[in-house]
Design goal:
By secondary structure, the protein is mainly alpha-helical. Helices cover 72% and strands 2% of the residues. It has eleven helices and two strands. Strands 1-2 form a two-stranded antiparallel ribbon. Helix 3 crosses helix 9 and helix 7 (141-167) crosses helix 9. The protein is globular. 34% of the residues are buried.
Length: 254
């Protein structure tokens, strides 16, 4: 009975996020800005390239990638008119298209990213950020930082809540295990995303492609950190098991 009730809560939460993300996409419809579609498609392809190399979370409840750099650049370049669509369509992974991911998870993933990108773009504009496509400077630092923080909090929190509800794990424990370690890496991609936006507005497509290598390096660093953390925890667990085998009367204390 408790399990059935928990499934109902999870389904309601997933449905609410899907509806909210859908409303965000409808609210900021890019169709009137037809000339931006080519630029938007370019950013979608860049995001797809980074999203094709996801990194598994420690608990196995999800994955993250270094696509934030590209999505943040799209937020600064297009504003609310196109950023949610780049986030929703540019982060689709191959396993989502092959049927390996249930349809409700597919919609949830698209919706929560659209919600995060749309909200981040709105925050940037409302706090006095530079108009889409225009250069920004030191006067816009508050808007830049708050926009990145908004994206991170909404993106990570929606996923963390879903994992917590489905696995019965306290939200804060789940956040500390799966997402705290990812925060510095995502925020470190913020300057890179800003540079991508600046280079795109001043140089164009070729200049942006030069930043793809730093994104790959960031992805490698993030993967290595996760691997080292997993090895460390496995080593500690092995030592604890060895201690308990030697002195069974202390089992559980180690």
């Amino acid at each position: 009975m408790a399990r059935q009730k928990n499934e109902i809560v999870v389904n309601i939460y997933v449905a609410l996020v899907i509806v909210a993300g859908g409303l965000m996409l409808l609210r900021f419809n890019p169709w009137p800005v037809s000339h931006a579609w080519l630029n938007g498609l370019f950013f979608m392809l860049l995001a797809l390239g980074t999203e094709a190399m996801p990194i598994s979370l420690p608990r196995g409840g999800g994955t993250v990638s270094v696509a934030f750099g590209v999505l943040y650049a799209a937020i600064l370049t297009f504003g609310p008119s196109f950023a949610p669509w780049v986030a929703a369509l540019g982060t689709i992974r191959r396993r989502e298209l092959t049927g390996d991911v249930p349809w409700h998870k597919l919609l949830f993933n698209r919706a929560q990213l659209a919600l995060a990108a749309g909200a981040a773009a709105v925050v940037y504009v409302q706090l006095g950020g530079a108009p889409p496509g225009m250069p920004f400077d030191g006067r816009h630092l508050v808007a830049l930082a708050c926009s990145a923080l908004t994206f991170f909090v909404i993106n990570m929190s929606t996923v963390a809540v879903a994992i917590s509800l489905s696995q019965g794990v306290p939200f804060w424990n789940n956040w500390l295990l799966n997402f705290r370690w990812a925060a510095p890496h995502d925020l470190a991609l913020m300057p890179l995303g800003g540079l991508i936006a600046v280079v795109f507005n001043s140089v164009g497509y070729l200049g942006v492609l030069l930043f793809f290598l730093p994104l790959l390096i960031a992805r490698y660093s993030l993967q290595r950190y996760n691997d080292l953390r997993t090895v460390y925890l496995s080593t500690i667990s092995a030592l604890v098991r060895a201690l308990e085998q030697k002195d069974p009367y202390t089992q559980g204390h180690s």
